[in-house]
Amino acid sequence: VLYLRGDTHSDFVAEAASQLDELLIDHAHCEKKAASTALTLLFRYPDVAALQAPLSALAREELEHFELMLATCESRGITFGRLTPSAYAGRLVQAARTEEPGRLVDALLCCALIEARSCERMKLLASGLPDADLRALYSGLLASEARHHALYVDLAAGLVGRDQARARLDTLAAHEAEVIAEPSTRLRMHSGPLVGPPA
Ligand SMILES: [Fe+2]
Ligand SMILES: [Fe+2]
Known about the structure:
Helix content is 70%, strand content 0%. It is built from seven helices and no strands. Helix 5 (102-128) runs antiparallel to helix 6 and helix 6 (132-160) crosses helix 7.
């Protein structure tokens, strides 16, 4: 079960299909960023025992996904390189608390929501993209992202209890649903409805 409040806008797959290079390069960056975020939590919270082995394993898995996306780009003649990230993650974490212990709980729940949104979109791509190889790629990845979503929710529940974690997740999920629906000028894994030409 994914704890998301709103659905992705209906044009997302069509937008992605018309800008596959941007989608695949941005997706590669997202996998690398997912690994980096898990490592950042390990460096920030070496004393929280429950995080250590699960987040290390998660980071490893995200780096495998990164390598898979690099190989996918290369096999399609797409050059991987710097890309302006979407505003999504930065906007999402604006709702996170900055004082402990809420800071860690919210960081885990924001990660849970990013994993959930990625999984929801991969499901759409897995069924809607015209390219059969990419449909297979996305159906292969989405189960891991669903598992990562559940892991982050469980880690937060381990810190503050299931009820408190769920209540906070509801609040953050409402914010996430607003952020993901904000219009974007560039197609990204987490862009909103595309408007106008890129600035
Ligand atoms: Fe991943
Ligand atoms: Fe993930």
